[in-house]
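ok, trying the design again with the full structure, not the truncated one.
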């Protein structure tokens, strides 16, 4: 489990801590990735990723530019992650728990399924 401190919420600016499960549905081991990070103390708290949200976005943009990737934005990763959770067979409430979406209307905007992924889901249901 991972705790996100003060997760962004349009209604409340603080006190939005949320625990989310670390899932290995991407082919990467999230626990191993976190264990590779160096813990940093910020405001008397230990942080795994002590980055300012602006610097993370800037680093992503710089990496895309250096790699010649056009028209990809940091926020696009949220759309990708949401879609892959559905393709892995998770249901709406389970995906919402990870993404932090409060309602299906907003979660639906982040969902872009690949048609071929339905074969994998169908195979896991009948297996």
């Amino acid at each position: 489990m991972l705790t996100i401190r003060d997760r962004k919420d349009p209604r409340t600016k603080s006190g939005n801590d949320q625990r989310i499960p670390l899932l290995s549905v991407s082919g990467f081991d999230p626990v191993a990735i976190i264990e590779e990070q160096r813990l940093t103390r910020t405001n008397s708290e230990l942080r795994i990723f002590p980055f300012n949200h602006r610097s993370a976005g800037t680093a992503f943009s710089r990496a895309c530019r250096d790699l010649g990737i056009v028209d990809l934005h940091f926020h696009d990763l949220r759309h990708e992650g949401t879609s892959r959770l559905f393709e892995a067979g998770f249901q709406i409430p389970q995906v919402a728990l990870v993404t932090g979406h409060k309602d299906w209307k907003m979660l639906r905007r982040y969902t872009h399924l690949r048609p071929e992924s339905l074969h994998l889901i169908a195979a896991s249901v009948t297996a």
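Keeping the full-length input from now on. The chain has two domains: 1-50, 72-127.
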